[in-house]
Amino acid sequence: MIAGLAIIFKQIGSFLQIFQFILMGLTFAPLSTMPYLTILPVVKGVDMARGIMIHHSSLMNFSIVDYTSLIANAAVYLFLGVVVFKRCEKTAMIKGVLGQH
Are 43 and 31 in contact (CB under 8 A)? Predict the structure, then answer.
């Protein structure tokens, strides 16, 4: 999604810095206190990795629901990213800002 914005607006460095802080905030949020954050990107995977490191558990300790949630979340955000990128690419071509790429 961000790559699509970059080909349209070109100067998105400050947005990337802000977005980086948003992602850091998401990684520090524990799902045990805020389970609704599961639908956001990277949160479920980071929470599972945190569980492995803190509780010394293995990958076998997670349920099939955890893995299904993780894979579904990744698939949805991958799909959204590709759709948004394709739309941004089309918009950039119409505006003529894409150059010869």
Answer: yes
- Report d(CA 75, CA 57) in Å as an integer: 25
pLDDT tens digit string along 8-28?
A: 888 888 888 888 898 888 888
Query: Please, are residues 8 and 97 in contact by the beta-carbon 8 Å criterion?
Result: yes
64 phi and psi angles, rounded to 5 deg: -65, -30
CB–CB of 49/31 below 8 Å? no
Q: Is the pTM of this model over 0.85?
A: no
Per the CB < 8 A criterion, the answer to whether 60 and 24 are in contact is no
The per-residue DSSP string of 41-82 comes to: TTHHHHHHHHHHHHH---GGGS-HHHHHHHHHHHHHHHHHHH
- Six token digits for residue 58: 């293995």
